Amino acid sequence: MSQAGGSPAETWQANVVGLLNLAEAVIAGAPGSTLLFASSGEVYGRAFLAGTALDERTVPMPANTYARTKLAGERLLADVLPAAGIRSVALRPFNHIGPGQDERFVVASFACQIARIEAGLSEPVLEVGDLSARRDFLDVGDVVAAYAAVIRRTDDFETASIFNVGSGRARPISELLDGLRERARVPFEIRIATDRLRPSEIPTASGDASALTRATGWQPRIALANSLARILDEARTRIQS
């Protein structure tokens, strides 16, 4: 599971105090509106140890600072906005992938390493960390479509609604690496790098988004193979520029 950058105090300041400031501005300037809050599937934390795709009825057990601040943000909005006549909808998206993602994220890291190897800028060795962790990956296009589907239906939701945005499938990171390797133009070795090896306390994490599907008709539509092809093509362009 990811961690927010900076110190815990900075994360709380940005994700909770900053959110409160935004909520106050909405109350003052946009009465009767709806605030769509991008929370995170990470709020479930240690509840993922159940090993199944979790739905919104699961009690969150956040395991890091970022996740704790996101859950606090959900509760803050549910407490502050309804009294002012403003509806809030919290979305809990799971892992995004897509072209242009920062190399700090695992799939972008793999793709950019492959692009450098293909261009002759690196030796034919791809460094990896823990490949056994299983995560719920969605193409960013599907995530954006989920947000748009919710925006179109906000008048239909209860105040302080919460929806997961996920595929319901936990894929091992090794599966995504295999998909990229199949599309590589040159062979390469895979090497475990100790500085990348951060075994997770959460071996499997996925979210059941059937509530969102029932409410809006949304469901993931972009195949993983298409996502990986686009990610690798963009990485090649990025490395060559």
From TrEMBL:
Tree of life domain: Bacteria
InterPro entries linked: NAD(P)-bd_dom, NAD(P)-bd_dom_sf
Domain NAD(P)-binding: 7-227
Name of the molecule in the record: GDP-6-deoxy-D-mannose reductase
Lineage, uppermost ranks: Bacteria, Pseudomonadati, Pseudomonadota, Alphaproteobacteria, Hyphomicrobiales
